[in-house]
């Protein structure tokens, strides 16, 4: 078979083909490890480089899983994208119940960002410094960070990350802002790029992550290109950071019909083609959010938008290639 990263690396303007991983998939000899080494040139920790698994208390850490993932990437010449330093869905209990002052809270966040970026300086190529800071209505999401640190918290977090990287000599670290559904939600898209402009004015951002948890029907090619081109126009790197393509978002099929299978293939091809057409200076990585359909976050998601089962990824439950994988390859033509 043709492997994704082999075809991507052979392009005139190559880019990383990434996948979300769990540290327990990285064991030498596992089928994940084989597929990972053959197909992918970048990894993102699906969970284990977030604050809640790493931060065990003020200045105390559990580095076991994050170190394993970073070491695996560094040992195997695979790019490591850091996800995510600050996210409202990944606040450890000790910090979400913090009884100190707001200033002390901010110092804890600064310490965390500084310690993590310093530890992985030169080993992690890029970080989602802040993830999903914008609410679906286009306002700032009312997170614990906004409440306790104030409206300037985003800039503070990027400044701390940049300062830590530079102090550690990692002047090439790429700082990303990462969010979802900006292609179809214009108020949200506008707010994201207001934040991005503000960060860029202080040279505190290098790229934008478009998660792209899509369906086989939405967003349209035009919506995706319009959204992504706003980052291109600002000279920023574009990371399609969490791509998966649902085919059963309305729970109207009980198995992957051939019709949906081929529609999914076409959507993967469309998105890869859009990414592949980007100017070289704006290319970074296109990351799919997992290996196998039955391990996707989607079928087991409790929220109402993702009822029942779905088949959103490139490999089926038996770790066999799907038409989606062929679509991805065709997008690299
Ligand atoms: O592994 C621990 C286990 O030791 C512990 O006992 C258990 C108790 O809660 O948690 C287990 O961790 C789970 C983790 O996935 C590893 O499987 C967490 O509960 C669970 O919340 C976590 O879900 C992840 C979720 O983010 C929240 O971090 C999903 O795998 C991951 O796909 C999802 O990814 C997010 C992106 O980071 C941001 N964009 C949206 C995307 C989908 O929600």
TrEMBL record:
<dbReference type="GO" id="GO:0045493">
    <property type="term" value="P:xylan catabolic process"/>
</dbReference>
<protein>
    <recommendedName>
        <fullName>Beta-xylanase</fullName>
        <ecNumber>3.2.1.8</ecNumber>
    </recommendedName>
</protein>
<feature type="active site" description="Nucleophile">
    <location>
        <position position="242"/>
    </location>
</feature>
<dbReference type="GO" id="GO:0031176">
    <property type="term" value="F:endo-1,4-beta-xylanase activity"/>
</dbReference>
<keyword id="KW-0326">Glycosidase</keyword>
<keyword id="KW-0858">Xylan degradation</keyword>
<keyword id="KW-0119">Carbohydrate metabolism</keyword>
<keyword id="KW-0732">Signal</keyword>
<comment type="similarity">
    <text>Belongs to the glycosyl hydrolase 10 (cellulase F) family.</text>
</comment>
<keyword id="KW-0378">Hydrolase</keyword>
<keyword id="KW-0624">Polysaccharide degradation</keyword>
<feature type="domain" description="GH10">
    <location>
        <begin position="1"/>
        <end position="331"/>
    </location>
</feature>
